[in-house]
Amino acid sequence: MSGTDSGAERNGGNKPVIDRYRAFIFPNRMREFRQRAGHARLLHFAAELRDIPYIRLSKIERGEVFARPEELRRIAAALRIAPSELLIDIDHPAFDIERWAEPFAGNQDDLDEVRFAMLLAAALRVRRARDRDLTIAAIERDFGIAPVNLSRLENALKPFGRWNGATRAAVLGIMGVANEAQLRQEVTRQHQAGELDQFIGAIATPESRHVRSRQRIAEIADLLAASPGAPVAPPSADATATATATTAPAPATRVSAVAVATRLVPVHGAPQPDGLVSCAPTGTMIEAPRIAGRRAFGLRMCRATLGGGLPAQATLIVDPDRYPAPGGLAALREQDGWRVLSVGADRDGRMIGYSTNPPLEIVLDACAPDTLAAIVSAIFV
Q1: How is residue 66 annotated by DSSP?
Q2: What are phi and psi of 268, to 5 degrees?
Q3: Is 243 helix (H, G, I), strand (E, B) or coil?
Q4: pTM above 0.70, yes or no
Q5: Of 23, 78, 124, 133, which is least surrounded by CB within 10 A?
Q6: Is 334:147 a contact under the CB 8 Å cutoff?
Q7: Given a cut of 90, is residue 316 above it in pLDDT?
């Protein structure tokens, strides 16, 4: 990793490593090219991209979300450049996350609050590790925290004060304290006693952010290059020298019941509470389509959680090497198993996963990318 991308406030002892740039998961060249094209304000440029909501476009430019390949193509077309020019090699010596993030410095939170968010994330993990009955499903049922928000809390994606009142109250309930002052005292006590040490290292660091971005850059470059009618090259060193880079999620292929199979993959799945499917092996194999990646596997539905259109006896081909997209299906890995979701987008451009039984709406853009996989085919047997 480039020495300019540490983004860290390193502390002695068992204190967390603070990633000052944790919000910037997708640095890119969109702002640079927009200004070159004469669009001083993003709002003016957004008028040429009516199929990408302004809020979504703003988050892409600020690097707060991973852009989808089709979004990069539309943005590039409006700027009259190749989509690959929006990407940069973050391992290039010229990459500097601090310089790239400077125009968006207002996004950064107070470091003390970021530090507390990381300690709270570790404390929540400790709390659940000590009580095996405190599952993701139980937390959603008893405290009203959806799995996606629990994941965000346990990964310190934003300070405690930026959560809404209901979520803050639910956290107090989980931690067994009466108010925020007691919560901060208890978390501090656990930290000083070394009880959080085991989990602090699992919270996102500058290094893990960098690795994730590097991986997704390679994925998006490959997808753009492989797409018919859109041959593009990987990001160049020249492009890197003037800005900085990241990656974006791979699109899901729309589910098809008919596919040309080339190999057998193992099938997993056993019914779990709350509509989840466990990763338990079934001892059977199933044919995977050509488009499936090397890590693809079969997953039995076990229940008709998406309604009658996808019956319980269906087996899905899950591809962890592909990222979901609206119009397809997704598998979300939670602590107790996989959740199958249909994928759509809301008016703000956020990717939403839907389940019918139980009824759920999960903001997939807020989920850790390595917990999401595209479903590339379904076999109804």
Answers
A1: P
A2: -120, 165
A3: coil
A4: no
A5: 133
A6: yes
A7: yes
